[in-house]
Amino acid sequence: MQSLQPDPAARYRNVLEALWRIIRTEGLWRPMRGLNVTATGAGPAHALYFACYEKLKKTLSDVIHPGGNSHIANGAAGCVATLLHDAAMNPAEVVKQRMQMYNSPYHRVTDCVRAVWQNEGAGAFYRSYTTQLTMNVPFQAIHFMTYEFLQEHFNPQRRYNPSSHVLSGACAGAVAAAATTPLDVCKTLLNTQESLALNSNITGHITGMASAFRTVYQVGGVTAYFRGVQARVIYQIPSTAIAWSVYEFFKYLITKRQEEWRAAK
């Protein structure tokens, strides 16, 4: 849905139509393409992400607002954590999006990695890194600040409360996703180097955020920056809700076991 000049057979009006037509014309498992490479990248990326966030949040909060919660500390910690997360995740995103494009020539992850490496070099896996950061730094700042803000209202004692983690995570993801959709469209263009967009009086590879913003506007105008916003919000709501609820569960479980172990010594 974010494609600037999609193939006529891949023009979709809404998320449900897109999903139905993809399954009907390309098979039941087509929407799952890229799952394996995403899962491979998500493990180390999220480990770095949450570890960095927790450490910096506590350190900065102690400096800015000792003994309390600081939204500035939450946002700053989220921004720094994003640098590590995206460094691990960016190559996986490039491969995933190229495999998900309509009529993609790649059927296996290894085929895609080999072709990108041979034809465009190792730098292609990080071509969208600066745009990814430009998108994800504000995304994560909004995301973490909204999550912590909602936790203050739904879970002021900061105990393990699954329903509050799910609700806060879902709302935080939706707000952040909608606000950063224009940057996500540019990131998709940089990752895929969409051939029809490149043929629209534009020569060579699209590199850098400024070039991507300019290309999106030339091809589709202002409205092109919000292509796929509905799908992006629908995707982020369960994604962030699951991420936060699972993270908070394991944080509670591990912390509880550590306390029991210390008490038993």
TrEMBL record:
InterPro entries referenced in this protein's UniProt entry, alphabetically:
MCP_dom_sf, MCP_transmembrane
Specify the domain of life of the species encoding this protein. Eukaryota
- Recorded topology in the membrane: Multi-pass membrane protein
**Catalytic function, reaction form:** Fe(2+)(in) = Fe(2+)(out)
An example of a Gene Ontology cellular component annotation for this protein is:
mitochondrial inner membrane
Q: Which residues cross the membrane?
A: none
Spans of repeat Solcar:
1-59, 69-153, 160-253
Give its localization: Mitochondrion inner membrane
Q: What is its main location?
A: mitochondrion
Q: Which UniProt keywords apply?
A: Ion transport, Iron, Iron transport, Membrane, Mitochondrion, Mitochondrion inner membrane, Transmembrane, Transmembrane helix, Transport
| Gene Ontology terms: biological process | iron import into the mitochondrion
| Similarity remark | Belongs to the mitochondrial carrier (TC 2.A.29) family.
Q: What's this chain's function?
A: Mitochondrial iron transporter that mediates iron uptake. Probably required for heme synthesis of hemoproteins and Fe-S cluster assembly in non-erythroid cells.
Q: What is this protein called?
A: Mitoferrin-2 isoform X2
Species this protein is from: Neophocaena asiaeorientalis asiaeorientalis
The encoding gene is SLC25A28
